[in-house]
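This section describes the prediction task in plain terms. A model, or a person checking by hand, is given the sequence of a single protein chain and must write out its three-dimensional structure as a string of tokens. No templates, partner chains or ligands are provided. The sample shown here is typical of the held-out split.
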Amino acid sequence: MPAVYGIDLIAKRDKKIKMDRSIVKCWNVHYQTLEEVEEAARAKKQKEEEQAQKNAERDSGEDEEEDGRRHQQAKDKKKQMEEAYNPKTGAYSGHYGKKPVKDEGQKQQIHAILNEKPEPFEAAMSTIQAQGQEG
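The expected answer:
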């Protein structure tokens, strides 16, 4: 007499997972006809052409102005980089510390660092001022 085994919940789950993964569901598949594919490609191409035409019309008058602005910006940036070069250190740090600090957190941090050891800071500042007065 053959043995009769009951199917437990794990075996049922495994069978369901195997079936779910192995069968392509009809509701997940959209069959497109050749006409639908061609129409979609044609619509996409037409939309791209219209967009390109709009961009060309808009940019035609602005190209010369834009080129002038870009050229001027490139010159300004190059000039700033040349001014920022520090030959002593060999780095582009010439503008560091020349702009005022706007962030409150950074201001507090700077204040805490500078007031940590006020005597050496004051001595260094007086030395710098003395050198400035001599030169």
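For orientation: The radius of gyration is 37 Å.
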